Amino acid sequence: MRLSRFLKRDLVILVLAAVVIAWANGDLEGLLGIPGWQSYGVRIINMCAINAILALSLNLVNGFTGQFSLGHAGFMALGAYTTALLTMDMAAKDRVFFMTPLVEPLRNLTLPFLPSLILAGLIAGLFSLVVGIPALRLRGDYLGIATLGFAEIIRLIIQNVRKVTNGALGLKGIPQVVNLWWTLGSAFICYLMLRNLINSSYGRALKSIRENETAAQAMGIDLFKHKLLSFFISSFWAGVGGGLLASLLTTIDPVQFKFHLTFQVLLMVVLGGMGSLSGSIIAAGIVTYLMEFLRIVEETHYWGSITIPGIPGLRMVIFSLALVLVVVWYPKGLMGDSELTAQGVKAFLGRFRKTLRLKGGRPV
Amino acid sequence: MQLSMFFQHLANAISLGSLYSLVAIGYTMVYGILRLINFAHGDLLMLAAYIVYYARGMFHLPWPISIILAILLTAGTGILVERAAYRPLRDSPRTTILISAIGVSFLVENLGLVLFGGRPQPFPLPAVFDSGSAREIGGVRVENITFAIPVVTLVLLYVLLHIVHKTKTGMAMRAVARDFDTAGLMGVDVNRIVAITFAIGSALAAVGGIMWGMKFPQINPLMGMMPGMKCFIAAVFGGIGNIQGAVVGGFILGVAEIMIVAFLPSISGYRDAFAFVILIGTLLIRPTGLIGEKVAEKV
Amino acid sequence: MILDIRGMKMQFGGLVAVDNLNLSLEQGELVGLIGPNGAGKTTVFNVITGVYAPTQGTITLEGRDITGMRPDLITRLGVARTFQNIRLFSRMSVIENILVSLHWRLGSSVFDAIFQNRKYRSEEASMRSRAMDLLARVNLDSVADLPAGSLPYGSQRRLEICRALATEPRLLLLDEPAAGMNPAESIELMKFIGRIRDEFGLTILLIEHQMRVVMGISERIVVLDHGIVISQGTPREVSRDPRVIAAYLGVEQHA
Question: Would you call A150 and B100 a contact, using CB atoms and an 8 Å cutoff?
Fold first, then answer.
């Protein structure tokens, strides 16, 4: 059933990716050019993959369906906490829940990673229905602040229901199950799912809602059902992303899931191009890499006798500035609403070569 | 609860409500003319507080000069932000300009973190508001600052309403809020009016920020974020685009926040959640707010 | 009787846009709805298609009450429309615009679409061929993959009509389809509308300002002024009606 023409192409990519991962697990200093530890490089690629999932899923709602949601962090939090609570064993939980004991049956329940991750997505998806059914009736900026409000409420609930989440103390000692297979694998599945969805009739329905809601409705599209569908899938993956994050970081607390987390994902989506899947992936990679690379400007450096002081917090200044600049000057972002294709790259290189030849003074 | 305790809370509630009102006005005015939620507005109150902090602490400027300087610089910042981040996007879809506003807000906050450091700093107090300076009203001890805030707010509100309803500039502002394009066609210098609106709103936020610093004498670069959100919610609750609505919304929100926590201390952890619940309730039940008016869309 | 409107009244706050409208359409008719600007014509369309629920009155489609129904449900029952200001999905391609109209008939579920299984792929293929057929009938098949927004104005108008046709309606509402066209183009459009009425077995209600177009193809005309019907009849009768002339007095048309 699945060996149609374009799934063969996916298999090729899958095999290539597997080769890269296997190689990367062996040697990453060469791959990234970051002097330092092997595990540091792996960690960055893990973060890239997780951020790709987050950016892709936010892009589905904001970029493809044209609905302005600012609630991503809330669904990530739900996914993270679900995964954490389900993968930690009872001993680990008792250690962490020292102020208020964890409520049964959660305390006894421990599941393997895969079901925990899937449940993380499903619970986030479930909450997205609770949020979406009232909120998706709103338009534009109102939807944005309503989803922002819901995300904050979710976060504040997590912060207060100590017997389930340990409140402000957070959770530590989450088993670190994720490795490159999990993160890159999930990212790949996420990309495949969204790509197939976008290229299908449902994807066209979502895009038509973005282009012109009234006309879409006049052509028989059930607006509410489709917006909710988009929202659900997006939140599912936000939950999965949150779960992967929890397993990667091994410690989570409510403060991590404030609005600035949604902001970072939004930055990736805008930078990559709202309406381009490959754009989101590329932007996720760039932003993740830069986040790490720019640590340099925040640390103090010594060049011989010159001391260049580090400026903590400068990274976020640069990113905020980048967002404003991109949105004002390049609102289409890197890819606009096109995807990265082999032809596209060839065409780009062709134009590039032509310009070079012209500039060299020689005829084309 | 003892009666004196109750009045203590009430006094604080009214104070907080006034502060919220001052900042909410800025949100509502900008939304009225540009249909933009100026996310960066709340951070301006932080900026003003820090200007006063450095003016007093580092340069030892006298109080009146510090305050005036803070107000002018904050108003200037507001105008600058509009010019750089919002005006180029006037013809873009609304979500684009909203993203820009979010970006500016984060930029201001993070610049604040970089320039001022993340640790909370104590805010200087003028002699008249020194901790410990208080009055006795009906057997209840009310700090001077708690008393002063609503008074200052009412005075500023009176001045603002006078400007909006009794001057030519105010009329132009109302015209632009009613119909942006037609006002421009009628000869109103729209860009100037927008700048003035931002200036006034920012100035009010500045006063709010300075008084905030005096009342809760600790400032940090992220102090504007939550109050900013709440003030916006207050503006929506009262009726976005409507100045009286912003004031009513601000007062109700501030009073509710303090009184609910006073009577039900067990849910004080959810203090910040009230505002969001009110927001969602308003958007779903009565999106035009308490005093707002409906704007129809032509199909 | 395809459409039966009884006592339609549409009031927005203090403004009565349409008052006591009675109008019925028989299968296969081509009826023109005219009137000075602001007469309430588009409002009538909006009420029929469910964008607004009328303040009073009923709308019956082939015996079924559709008053105040949701627009997409009304479309599925067989009513399609175009818009006064072109509302194409500009960034999507020409054929994608048509495919959107075919979406509601899709039998495949989201899962079918995500897994791209055989059921989905065959449905997609048949949708595409139907879309290309439709485009060919309006001579837009050569530009099927271009962004809809890049087409010349006249082609965009034709595409909008084609998109409405793709929903397989019984009743087609055209809102100023000739707006912005020169006289030659308008005559072409006239013929085109007549042709699709016959080919697709439609009933058509047409709003139009260009008198040449509307008088030329309508079998019956309804004249609206300030929300009230002031005249009804054949184009000849209506153009001689003194009330109609008075309503249009001072407004130059391509008469």
Answer: no
Rounded CA separation C18/B275 (Å): 42
**pTM summary value:** 0.89
Beta-carbon contacts of A192 under 8 Å, excluding residues fewer than 6 positions away, are A10
The CATH number linked to B102 is: 1.10.3470
Cβ–Cβ gap A211/C80 under 8 Å: no
CA distance B181 to chain A (A): 21
Q: Which domain, by its residues, includes B65?
A: 3-114+144-285
Q: Would you call C113 an interface residue with chain A, using a CB distance cutoff of 8 Å?
A: yes
CA distance A139 to chain B (A): 10
**A30 pLDDT exceeds 50?**
no
Total of domains in chain B: 1
- pLDDT reported for residue A3: 46
Contact residues, chain A, for B98 at CB < 8 Å: 68, 140-141, 144
pLDDT lower than 70: segments of chain B: 1, 131-133, 137-139, 293-299
C46 and B296 within 8 Å at the Cβ level: the answer is no
Q: Domain segments of chain A: what residues?
A: 1-37, 39-357
Cis peptide before B287 (omega within 30 of 0): no
Query: What pLDDT was estimated at residue A44?
Result: 85
Structure tokens at B268: 């004080």
Please report residues of C whose CB lies closer than 8 A to that of A234. none
Q: What residue of A is the nearest CA neighbor of B230?
A: A149
Name residue A252's beta-bridge partners. A171
Among candidate residues A1, A154, A130, the one with its CA nearest the CA of residue A73: A154
Residue A1 has pLDDT above 50, yes or no: no
**Residue A81 pLDDT level (bands cut at 50, 70, 90):** very high
